[in-house]
Amino acid sequence: ELKVEQNPLFLSMQEGKNYTIYCNYSTTSDRLYWYRQDPGKSLESLFVLLSNGAVKQEGRLMASLDTKARLSTLHITAAVHDLSATYFCAVDTPGSGYALNFGKGTSLLVTP
Amino acid sequence: DGGITQSPKYLFRKEGQNVTLSCEQNLNHDAMYWYRQDPGQGLRLIYYSQIVNDFQKGDIAEGYSVSREKKESFPLTVTSAQKNPTAFYLCASNPRGPAKNIQYFGAGTRLSVL
């Protein structure tokens, strides 16, 4: 059974600080996805990482993928309040029509 | 504008009632999915369909049914057999292009039990 584990599940950080969210998964996969969800809203795609060593950056967020370690990280640089949201990582499952298997999410709160 | 439309946004179900959640996409995507999200949890797969007139059970299909009569439509019925239906339901689709699997999500339907 494919497992996707994120940590931490809750994160409160001050504006201007840096932090990293970790995503471990239990099966071989070359593709990993990061989504953002605001309260009561749907999911917004942030990054699609398609190969080992992939690194993508958008604003204050940077995601990386190490398929050998089965680990992805989402690094937050100089956090601002607008980044407060829940962040999910997901791995696709070829045996289920490439449906996504999600972690439980990291609820991020950025405070002044 | 291309996208995925879910309706209604909020839905209330009475005891013993079946309810149907609509999902329509105009992205010309082959694959469509239904996920359930409970508070503080990630999404779990209910059903998926890779092609018209074909669909498969996901991890938590019990108490749900779907149909895929048209490429653009993938409705989900929550039957009376689903004893704990209160959740946020998200529909998604993807084009299944080579080396790509970017899933696009609808705005969701929030289902509650009266």
Overall description:
The complex is a heterodimer of chains A (112) and B (114). In chain A, strands 2, 4, 5, 9, 10 and 11 form a six-stranded mixed sheet that branches. In chain A, strands 1-3-8-7-6 form a five-stranded antiparallel sheet, with no helix packed on it. In chain A, 0% of the residues lie in helices and 57% in strands. Chain A has no helices and eleven strands. Chain A is globular, with a radius of gyration of 13 Å. Chain A is an all-beta fold and 112 residues long. With 114 residues, chain B is mainly β. Helices cover 0% and strands 49% of the residues of chain B. In chain B, the strands form two sheets. In chain B, strands 2, 4, 5, 6, 9, 10 and 11 form a seven-stranded mixed sheet that branches. In chain B, strand 5 and strand 6 form a beta hairpin. The termini of chain B are far apart. The mean pLDDT of chain B is 92. Classes of the chains: A mainly beta (112), B mainly beta (114).
Task: Supply database-style keywords.
heterodimer; A: 112 residues; mainly beta; six-stranded mixed beta sheet; five-stranded antiparallel beta sheet; 57% strand; B: 114 residues; seven-stranded mixed beta sheet; four-stranded antiparallel beta sheet; 0% helix
What is the fold's blueprint, element by element?
The complex is a heterodimer of chains A (112) and B (114).
Chain A: E1 4-7, E2 10-14, E3 19-25, E4 32-37, E5 43-49, E6 55-58, E7 61-66, E8 71-76, E9 85-93, E10 99-102, E11 106-111
Parallel strand pairs in A: 2-11
Antiparallel strand pairs in A: 1-3, 3-8, 4-5, 4-9, 6-7, 7-8, 9-10, 9-11
Chain B: E1 4-7, E2 10-13, E3 19-25, E4 31-37, E5 43-51, E6 54-57, E7 64-66, E8 76-78, E9 87-94, E10 104-105, E11 109-113
